[in-house]
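Ops channel
N.P.: pipeline sanity check, posting one input/output pair.
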């Protein structure tokens, strides 16, 4: 291969590599633009759904900013707790390492002292023998050099251990300061969360008063119907918004093939089952209500894209995951949301913390599976029924 041919090939390779990078950047930009477009559509939709009518809906809508703030704080506290555990584990490892290094240092000092003592004794004996036996002075020189070499090596080892201990102590101090800072921040956020929960209780008490005043079943029925209509409209708008967004590449298992193979999104007992009466008019549950401990993890039942992650009247902090093929799963009444709109999730990913948002008095997860907007009985999709 001559030099001209080599340059030509090199130029072609650079051009190819450059075009690949440009294509990748364009692909990334396109996905970013699609995600931003999706978020804008959902924000506009949410603003439309948030338009309220009448005092009752106005009072209910006041829950949204409070519960959203509580959700953000709860998620932040969860992250801080995980960071604290990691930092304390690292701190424990450093302290253990420090103890071990101090023991090594003591052993090295003791060995060095023994060596110096032995060297001194042997040195005196050698000088006496040299004087009495007239030994060659080079033998004594080699012996002294030998001991000096090991003494020097031992001293270097001790100095290295001293330096290592200094580094460990500096790291330990830095970690302790970081843990203290995290503890302080968590205390501040806990106080703020308590204040927000107090506000939530105030709003809740207002709702209870309105419920007492509005004993008419017809008003309750109208509220439930309005909430279901709002959700149905949201799902339809999401379906249209997601129609232009391509599915994730490399994931070829259709959701429809997972029937009977899924795990429930959280642990707990059923408080309501699909198809059972809601004891208001002829309304029936379109999903299931699973009681649980506030803050316990809610997990995605399968791979998909988060189509909605925000507060919705009647459902509180709600996550909707689009699984493709017309299937969506819904997770409502959460305390906090861990994923944002547009994020991809895999089966078993923690997506929320179970809660009582949306005006509930007890912590529970409201869960649905929908196909083309229509609710389906989720029980047949899972490995075992919950008691």
């Amino acid at each position: 291969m001559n030099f001209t041919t080599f340059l030509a090939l090199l130029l072609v390779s650079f051009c190819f590599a450059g075009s690949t990078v440009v294509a990748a950047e364009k692909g990334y930009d396109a996905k970013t633009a699609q995600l931003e477009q999706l978020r804008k559509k959902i924000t506009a939709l949410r603003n439309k759904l948030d338009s309220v009518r009448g005092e009752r809906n106005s009072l209910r809508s006041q829950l949204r900013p409070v519960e959203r703030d509580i959700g953000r704080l709860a998620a932040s506290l969860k992250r801080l707790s995980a960071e604290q555990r990691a930092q304390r584990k690292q701190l424990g490892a450093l302290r253990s390492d420090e103890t071990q290094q101090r023991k090594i240092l003591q052993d090295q000092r003791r060995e060095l002292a023994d060596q110096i003592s032995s060297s001194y004794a042997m040195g005196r004996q050698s000088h006496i023998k040299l004087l009495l036996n007239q030994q060659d002075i080079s033998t004594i020189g080699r012996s002294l050099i030998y001991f000096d070499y090991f003494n020097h090596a031992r001293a270097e080892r001790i100095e290295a251990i001293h330096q290592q201990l200094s580094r460990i102590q500096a790291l330990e101090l830095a970690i302790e300061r970081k843990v203290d800072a995290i503890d302080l921040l968590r205390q501040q956020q806990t106080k703020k969360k308590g204040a927000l929960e107090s506000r939530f209780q105030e709003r809740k008490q207002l709702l209870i008063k309105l419920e007492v005043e509005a004993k008419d079943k017809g008003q309750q029925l109208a509220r439930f119907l309005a909430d279901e209509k709002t959700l149905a409209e949201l799902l339809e708008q999401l379906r249209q918004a997601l129609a232009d967004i391509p599915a994730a590449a490399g994931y070829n298992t259709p959701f429809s093939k997972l029937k009977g193979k899924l795990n429930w999104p959280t642990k707990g007992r059923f408080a309501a089952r699909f198809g059972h009466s809601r004891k208001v008019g002829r309304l029936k549950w379109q999903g299931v209500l699973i009681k649980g401990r506030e803050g316990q993890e809610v997990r995605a039942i399968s791979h998909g894209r988060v189509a909605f992650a925000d507060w919705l009247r009647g459902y509180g902090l709600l996550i909707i995951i689009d699984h493709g093929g017309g299937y969506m799963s819904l997770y409502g009444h959460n305390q906090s949301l861990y994923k944002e709109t547009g994020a991809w999730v895999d089966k078993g990913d923690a997506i929320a913390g179970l809660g009582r948002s949306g005006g509930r008095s007890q912590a529970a997860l409201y869960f649905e599976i929908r196909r083309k907007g229509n609710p389906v009985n989720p029980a047949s999709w899972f490995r075992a029924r919950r008691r």
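N.P.: looks fine end to end. Residues 137-213 form the longest helix (77 residues).
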